[in-house]
Amino acid sequence: MESESNSKKMLELNGTVVVLLISFLAFIWALDLVFVKPVAKVLEARAAKVEKDLEASKASRAEADVVLVEYQKRLAEVRNEAQSIINEGVTASQKLRSEEISKVQAGGRQKLEAARVELATEKKGLVDQLVDREIELVNIMMGKLIGASHVASGLDRSQVKKALEEAC
Description:
Largest sheet: none
Order of helices and strands: HH
Radius of gyration: 63 Å
């Protein structure tokens, strides 16, 4: 009897184990169905999205590199154009400056020449006035030295004029 009772206990124990095992497998299957599969789908979707975003960022990076290279080329072109414009402006302003300086110098030369002519004319007029005064002064001096009031001098007007011109 004891063996029967032991076998029943074992059988009962074994039946409980089987029910427990079936319950555990049903629980695992339900857990898989309710939690694991949806989480796996979310993880797969997230991994796919990350991969997609990574590819998009690589494409954007490549596009940005192309745009940057184009921008740098355009910037270099614009700088060259700007330098060219600056050089042209400097050249034009130097040419204009040279022309203006030439005009001012020409005007200055004309004024200088006009002043020389005017001075020469004044000098001639003054020398002519001095010739008469010089002759008069010489006559006065000779009259005082000789004692006569009206001394006729033998001074030649052209010689006096020549001597005054040489002195001035």
